[in-house]
TrEMBL record:
Family, as annotated: Belongs to the G-protein coupled receptor 1 family.
GO cellular component, one term: plasma membrane
Compartment(s) where it occurs, according to its Swiss-Prot or TrEMBL record: Cell membrane
Protein name: DgyrCDS12852
Compositional bias ranges of the Basic and acidic residues kind: 239-255
Length: 424
């Protein structure tokens, strides 16, 4: 959100070397400065080009891969579109300003359109991340409700709201809010002159959404941690019931044979193990293979009974559905992984944007201070401001890289798009 374009920062970068005495650089300062500026231009152009490339891959991956068409990934697509807008419409003109020594020569209308698009694109990125955190929060804390109400209509409604709010926050610029007396005095600068708008946009675009995201992710991690602790507490060493050689077979109370083949259904009941040994088994040389059944409850005690003259051992048992448990474990693992990936996206986002919005508020305070003093004494270091502006832009460049590193499905989709290979 380039609210104070500072191409002078790169001019100062070149001037720094002019003060180095008795150096090779000082003898060829002009030529070397031009070479340095050319390198800076090339590096700055690298970011919008690769930002567009990476985010287009994200959009195409979700469009082409059925398994990526999830509610969360639709928000990621919206985030990628916002990053593409910043890379296509904002970054190139920001490069122009930087290398043109902070001189804007494209007119006031285009200046306002550029700044408004900058605010809208960056705000949309932040609000999409907020929507993703809301989606993750419901998915983790209320999985049943999330599964029932996970519809494309709800997702579309949230995405429409994100873009409406983003446009609304940037709209005052298009309505002339940035026309002040200070702007009339410096028409060659395309910057923000209205301190009220700086505070208003910073709160709506960053601080309020940021607080919401931090609270939601903190609660998500807390739920996951408590759930993991509960699972560890409930994990007990299972009892093993063995079908001793003295018995024919291990049977349920209803007479159906117990089996350990495949998945054991979730049920409660009683197992009966007749302890009478027949001569037929002895004569035939046969034997009963030990039947092993996992009993989840550790407080089950065997009860000896006499039934029709036979010694019977009965067990009350509770068998765990292994197939369902494996499915639940896989689902929980997927949820944890998705939440971890998005938390990394949030962490990188905060690293990239917190410095800018901090110095942006300081800039608003300086504008207000200088407005009421005849000799302005409050100024923000231009090189530092410029660095923080581009650090924020780089966030749009980093998001597709994060998806590639931490999300196997996106990584495979990228490989298929680029090389026509990858696991299905």
């Amino acid at each position: 959100m380039n609210e104070n374009s500072t191409g002078r920062g790169f001019e100062l970068y070149g001037d720094l070397f002019d003060f180095l005495p008795n150096s090779t650089y000082s003898t060829n300062s002009t030529d070397n400065r031009e070479a340095d500026l050319a390198l800076v231009k090339l590096l700055l152009l690298f970011f919008p080009a690769f930002t567009i490339f990476g985010n287009v891959l994200v959009v195409l991956s979700v469009y082409r891969e059925r398994q990526l068409r999830t509610a969360t990934n639709y928000f990621i697509v919206s985030l990628a579109i916002a990053d593409i807008v910043v890379a296509m419409c904002v970054m190139p003109l920001a490069v122009y300003v930087e290398v043109n020594n902070n001189k804007w020569q494209l007119g006031d209308i285009l200046c306002d359109a550029w700044v408004a698009t900058d605010v809208m694109g960056c705000t949309a990125s932040i609000l999409n991340l907020t929507a993703i955190s809301v989606d993750r929060f419901i998915a983790v804390t209320q999985p049943i409700k999330y599964a029932r109400h996970k519809s494309s209509g709800r997702v579309k409604g949230m995405l429409i709201l994100v873009w409406i709010v983003s446009i609304a926050i940037s709209l005052p610029i298009a309505c002339g809010m940035n026309y002040t007396n200070a702007r009339k005095e410096t028409p060659e600068n395309c910057i923000f002159y209205n301190s009220d708008f700086l505070i208003y946009s910073s709160m709506g675009s960053f601080y309020i959404p940021c607080i919401i995201m931090i609270i939601l992710y903190w609660r998500i991690f807390r739920v996951i941690r408590l759930r993991a602790q509960k699972q560890r507490r409930n994990h007990r060493t299972p009892k093993i019931i063995e079908n001793k050689p003295e018995t024919h077979s291990l049977k349920r109370f209803d007479g159906t044979d117990a089996t350990t083949d495949g998945a054991v259904p979730h049920t409660d009941g009683t197992l009966s193990a007749p302890s009478e040994e027949t001569d037929d088994r002895k004569k035939s040389g046969g034997y009963s293979a030990p039947a092993i059944i996992e009993v989840v409850e550790s407080n089950v005690e065997p009860i000896r009974e006499e039934s029709n003259g036979k010694s019977v051992t009965k067990f009350n048992f509770h068998l765990r559905n292994s197939k369902k448990r494996k499915k639940d474990k896989t689902a929980n693992k997927r949820e944890k992984k998705a939440t971890k990936t998005l938390a990394i996206v949030l962490g990188v986002f905060l690293f990239c944007w917190v410095p800018f919005f901090t110095i942006n508020i300081m800039n608003a305070i300086c504008i207000r201070y200088n407005l009421f003093h005849s000799h302005p004494a409050c100024n923000i270091d231009e090189m530092l401001f410029s660095f923080f502006v581009w650090l924020g832009y780089i966030n749009s460049f980093l998001n597709p890289i994060i998806y590639t590193i931490f999300n196997v499905e996106f990584r495979r989709a990228f490989k298929r798009l680029l090389f026509g290979c990858g696991e299905s």
